[in-house]
Amino acid sequence: MGSLFRSEEMTLCQLFLQSEAAYACVSELGELGLVQFRDLNPDVNAFQRKFVNEVRRCDEMERKLRYLEKEIRKDSIPMLEIPGECPEAPQPREMIDLEATFEKLENECREVNQNAEALKRNYLELTELKHILRKTQVFFDEHEGGANTTESMTRALISDDPNRHMGHVQLGLRDKQESLEFLPCFVAGVILRERLPAFERMLWRACRGNVFLRQAPIDTALEDPSSSDEVYKSVFIIFFQGDQLKTRVKKICEGFRATLYPCPESPADRREMAMGVMTRIEDLHTVLQQTNDHRHRVLVAAAKNIKNWFVKVRKIKAIYHTLNLFNLDVTQKCLIAECWVPALDLETIQLALRRGTERSGSSVPPILNRMETLEDPPTYNRTNKFTNAFQNLIYAYGVATYREVNPAPYTIITFPFLFAVMFGDLGHGAIMAAFGFWMCYKEKPLQAKKIDSEIWNIFFGGRYIILLMGLFSMYTGLMYNDIFSKSLNIFGSSWRQNYNQSTLETNRLLQLNPDSYDYIQKPYPFGIDPVWQLAEANKIIFMNAYKMKISIIIGVFHMLFGVSLSLWNYMYFKKRISIYVEFIPQILFLVLLFFYMVLLMFIKWTTYGSSGPDHFGSQEPEIVKTSGYCAPSILITFINMMLFKTDPNTRPQCDVAMFGGQMVIQKIFVILALCCVPVMLFMKPYYIMKEQKKRALETQGHQTIEGAAENGAAGGAVVPAQAPHDEDITEVFIHQAIHTIEYVLGSISHTASYLRLWALSLAHAQLAEVAWNMLLRKGLKSMGYEGGIILYVVFAGWAAISVAILVLMEGLSAFLHTLRLHWVEFQSKFYQGEGYLFQPFSFEVILDSAGTGEE
After folding, report:
1. Angle formed by the axes of helices 634-643 and 662-714, nearest 10°
2. Are residues 250 and 303 in the same domain?
3. Residue-range definition of the domain harbouring residue 330
4. Cβ partners under 8 Å of residue 578, min gap 6
5. In the 8-state DSSP scheme, what is residue 775?
6. pLDDT band at residue 321, thresholds of 50, 70 and 90?
7. What pTM does this model have?
8. What is the secondary structure of 457-507 as a DSSP string?
């Protein structure tokens, strides 16, 4: 849990592994997931590394598995999930068995597919031929009962009968005086139905109208053997005369990818061919069914183990890919690696290395040595399923610099709370909390489903954030006494009206006067008095003042907490000068100006009452000065404080100041705050420049002493020592100036930015009230039988608007504004976010990313 507040302490280690034991040791480290290896061969090509052949073999096995998976999915065969724990990485010698198994399955599957495709092609050809024989027989039978069919077609071609267009496409012969002794030829075939119109036009133009074409659609869809798609085709028969037209017609058919089939001229031959075709179709259907059954059995057997095989192959590939990052020693018997590991897990890693050595049967133990380095280590924060979502919110802004304060544990509370201040509604918060609780309660079943919807994965990943946001919104909804734009009268209102009944009945826009609160009773115990829900005239005025001040108070405390966390960073990294010239001036600037403004709000709330100047009578002037009439404006007071200005007193019965010595204290506060600015701007560059000059003088004196000793002893030349690297003072000054300006101006703009807490809360409340008044209120007023139907319809619309707009859209808006308040207003006070993430070699991460990529 300590690493949640600050990242884990990391150490760079050097690892020596015997070649025989390296595979097993890396496998154990992959199961552990606590070691990040460095590439010791950055200049070596990926194809020139030691284990490139093993990686290629794994790629080939993975390709074969993907092919099998594609075939399994094509047949809609369920693939069994891995039961129990994930299988361990197999030994290198098992790769040969796996390769042989995958090779056999792939070859068998490809062979069956090729046979099935050939059988389907033959089946398609026979089916098309069957339709051609049937359709052409109809064409021939239409003329003279099928007798002397060729001559009858010839007569039809050269006939002058205007009624010869019998619902089919005919292209007449141009020369109608030819003798009947030149009998026409014909070709028959099938063509895709969508290509038929263009096919007819091309025949007409290319043959100049000297052909006769009949076509009929095939009613049933045919299966394309190559793509397994269903296609619709039509049968056609073309009559023509002469070899020249025959060649031209065949070329046109070839261009339109029409398939031509032999068709006998005599009816007896056609009937005999049709009987033979039907017999062959039945035989092919039987063989094709047996082939598909065999293919299905092969794929069902593969589906039982394919998930397991994928895991094994990916683990083997990951191990060899990691081994390619290692170096070989001179003897070629030892592998050398460098890795980042958490310091607290060194013993666990040592145990994993010993297990790997024992599994491999090696007698040489591995060696893990710590190394000294000036390189910045990676950032590693241990998280669980609850804290992981909040940590990802921080990582979305930037990974923390090594050992920097982690904002995640504080975000767990502040994020849902600031969201709830903007979203505060008991009803809508309950809907959100119920959805978050359902996702948390059904966590394991929902994870097992592996839903690939991106929007769902975002919601499910932030299920604990949604639950907390809903619960906190229920709390703030109780504070605002707001549930679906209505109030809960739990403790009874403390307000009493001082009007008579006739005044109340004739004046609908009477404003609630806070002076009318019954001071004999106590104020409303928790939250806002429900009577304000009835104050249509001045409810918004009252709620605006309340929520605006609450927003400023929360914002100032949030920023003060952020600046305070920077002190923790300075103390840990031992930057004493930053404590004096950055933290102290920053905290003083914020306290003397904006925290003082917050104190004025509390003083105003506790000092001034709600009564007017004449409420208590002229005999008690001391009470009049603390009445609401004399209460000053905090905004005007703060502006006058910054401008060193005092407004004339327009109310003689009231005091100008809220407390004694206020004007003097305010001037002192402003002067001290302004003095903090040059301290933040100049003191750090001055201190760094002074330190650099001091180091330069010390280095120069040291070199002079060493040079004199060398000249006196050996008479040699003085060798200048290498001076430590100093920062450019100009860059330091520019950086400090930018940081100071950003902080000073940001303190003002960030304080104003927290007003979004008030603005979004007001917008949400008003939208909820509009939805109630425009929909549900009218439905509740409906009476009788029709009223029940109207209420049913109106409630459905109101519920849909409440969920879609007020919960989802308003919730997303409040979420994004809360995210901005944390990233910009809070984290900018102490969080640099310039580190890089610890990415250990972990089988779990590799398999999850591979599964996500497949989906």
Report:
1. 50
2. no
3. 12-103+297-362
4. 570, 684
5. I
6. very high
7. 0.80
8. HHHHHTHHHHHHHHHHHHHHHHHHT-BTTB---SS---B---S-HHHHHH-
